[in-house]
Design goal:
348 residues; 13 strands; four-stranded antiparallel beta sheet; alpha+beta; five-stranded antiparallel beta sheet
Length: 348
């Protein structure tokens, strides 16, 4: 990156950079460098389980997964009057019981075949051959509520499920997952993970469950983002997204948030196809958001491109955290359109 631009960036973000801790040691060196048609961040953290291999296709019979070693049952939440579950709610709960929590490999595979959206079966099926680790499971899961949404002409439903940590030490700690459903099939799951973009996605959806508002922080969008956040959002396209210089792209990683660093590191190893370059990038509009003690900026960046003439950049602590783009993948586009609706600028 040219020295003059580095100087500008450092002046704009020296305070934010000094306060942000980044962990670069977990990045895996690339095996190859190749030009690809498009390089985008992966979907927001999904409720796809961490894995433990099951020997000979059978569930584990000993160790921390043994059914004989179940921890003491946590105190169940006070039950509201029982109601009949909708089809979407039934399938969402089956995901927890018959896939995530199950030790039966065939049951897990059958769930994917019968209840996962067709275009997502290739993602979920490999996990069906593994036993889910206990710290990912949900003990005593129950459906709290479901909300229908109309997103870009598509009718979907989000289902909120509550449960407890499934381990001996934290078995009384509640946790939640939001399942995205379409046409009675499971599409995706959203968790409140450590990644700042996944946190924002979860909070965005969680705020639709007003019947359980006492359990959430209000997500607020207002005002304009700091000028430094707008600047780094635009500079991203010139020195990373559009760049053919791998050294320049790696240098820009100094301005990437630690929680999403590894993803952007992988992207720095390839050259983005020119069809998705964004030239003359400008901040068309910006917003600040906050909930609890979390805050950040969303910058709507528009420019010239053969495709995708606008993107939304998430900036946290003065660093690039995520890029939201229309991807033609429902689980990502739901988040894109919900965030895009917060802006008043007309789409390109």
């Amino acid at each position: 990156m040219k020295k003059i631009h580095i100087t500008i960036l450092i002046c704009l973000m020296i305070i934010a950079s000094a306060c942000s801790a980044t962990d670069r040691e977990n990045a895996v060196p690339p095996e190859s460098q190749a030009e690809i048609s498009s390089v985008e961040p992966s979907p927001a953290s999904a409720a796809v389980p961490d894995q433990e291999p099951a020997e000979s296709g059978e569930p584990a019979e000993s160790g921390e997964l043994a059914k004989s070693a179940e921890p003491a049952q946590p105190v169940k939440p006070s039950e509201s009057p029982e109601r009949e579950l909708t089809l979407d709610e039934e399938v969402a709960l089956k995901y927890i019981n018959e896939f995530l929590n199950s030790d039966d490999i065939e049951e897990k595979k059958n769930f994917v075949k019968e209840h996962a959206a067709e275009d997502k079966q290739g993602i979920f099926m490999p996990y069906a051959s593994y036993i889910t680790k206990r710290d990912v499971r949900f003990r005593n899961p129950r459906v709290l509520d479901s909300v229908p949404l109309s997103i870009a002409g598509q009718e979907v439903t989000i289902v909120l499920i509550e449960g407890y940590e499934d381990d001996d030490c934290n078995c009384r700690e509640k946790k939640e997952v939001i399942i995205l459903m379409k046409d009675g099939k499971m599409v995706w799951g959203y968790l409140d993970s450590n990644d700042v973009h996944a946190q924002l996605s979860f909070q965005l959806l969680r705020n639709y469950f007003k019947n359980y508002a006492e359990n959430i922080y209000e997500l607020t969008f207002a005002g304009s983002a700091p000028a430094a956040d707008e600047e780094i959002a635009c500079v991203y396209f010139e020195y990373f997204h559009n760049s053919t210089d791998h050294e320049e792209k790696r240098e820009f990683l100094n301005y990437v948030h630690s929680s999403t660093y590894n993803m952007f590191f992988q992207m720095s190893q390839v050259v983005t196809n020119k069809d998705v370059w964004l030239k003359n990038a400008k901040a068309a509009e910006s917003l600040q958001y906050w909930y609890d003690d979390k805050k950040g900026s969303l910058i709507l960046v528009q420019g010239e491109s053969a495709r995708d003439k606008e993107h939304m950049m998430q900036v946290v602590d003065g660093e690039i955290a995520w890029k939201y783009t229309k991807m033609n993948r429902l689980e990502e586009d739901v988040i894109y359109y919900l965030l895009r609706s917060k802006f008043t600028t007309s789409p390109l």
